[in-house]
Design a protein that fits this description.
Distance between the termini: 58 Å
Helix content: over 70%
Structural class: mainly alpha
Order of helices and strands: HHHHHHHH
Radius of gyration: 27 Å
Strand content: under 5%
Shape: elongated
Oligomer: single chain
Length: 235
């Protein structure tokens, strides 16, 4: 049952409170804290495999926020029940297959947590505790943005590495280095000729040239531009 005491703060927002909603919120709070040790192992592992110090620092800052959230959840639970949450220590966690998989899991985990924490907030009867949940939810949304940044950065780097090292050959040239002007002339001439004969505009030549500079051969580059044009016109 609800256990009001001097530490609750701000009084009651809308008495009488809904006991069923409060019980549900407290159960969700307990579940969130019970996974604390597993989350800690996950974050420590993700930090250990992060490729740069910047990324390690970002994930570490998220981990520290999560520790703060657990302290806040424990306080909320004790304010209402007078009891402490005892978490499990001997837990295992499923390692991500790689860094990208870990970031993806963390990103969707943050978004899922937001949904759960909104439900917790709706069942809390005092303004003080709802404000605490608002702070936690705001942090989770910031975390999702940070993970999205890490994911985008990693995938961009991965794609650039593939182009440089020719790990995937889908019409890309093997030696990815800057063209000289003489080489650019040889590249552009067949593109111009094709564009003139098939009534392509200058934009097509420019786009295809950019792709060639990124490592595609001229024929593949023009085909990609044509597919892009067809898609846009179709939309």
């Amino acid at each position: 049952m609800y256990n009001p005491n001097a530490n609750m703060g701000y009084g009651y927002a809308n008495p009488p409170y809904n006991q069923q909603a409060l019980d549900k919120s407290l159960q969700l709070v307990k579940e969130a804290v019970m996974g604390e040790r597993e989350d800690e192992l996950f974050y420590d592992y993700l930090i250990s495999i992060a490729p740069t110090q910047e990324e390690k620092n970002i994930i570490a800052s998220i981990r520290d926020d999560e520790k703060k959230h657990n302290r806040m959840f424990r306080q909320i639970y004790k304010d209402y029940t007078g009891k402490d949450i005892v978490g499990e220590e001997n837990v295992k966690f499923e390692k991500p297959t790689d860094y990208v998989d870990g970031i993806s899991r963390a990103l969707f985990g943050e978004l899922k947590a937001v949904e759960k924490y909104r439900e917790i907030r709706s069942g809390l009867p005092t303004r003080r505790h709802r404000d605490m949940l608002f702070e936690i939810i705001t942090d989770e949304l910031k975390h999702a943005s940070k993970y999205n940044y890490l994911y985008t950065k990693t995938m961009t780097h991965h794609e650039n590495s593939m182009l440089r090292n020719n790990h995937v050959n889908r019409g890309r040239r093997r030696n990815h280095r800057p063209f000289t002007l003489d080489e650019w002339e040889k590249v552009i001439d067949p593109l111009v000729h094709k564009a003139q004969n098939e009534q392509h505009d200058s934009k097509d030549i420019i786009l295809a040239s950019i792709l060639v500079g990124a490592g595609y051969d001229p024929r593949s580059a023009m085909r990609i531009v044509e597919q892009w044009e067809s898609k846009n016109k179709g939309g």
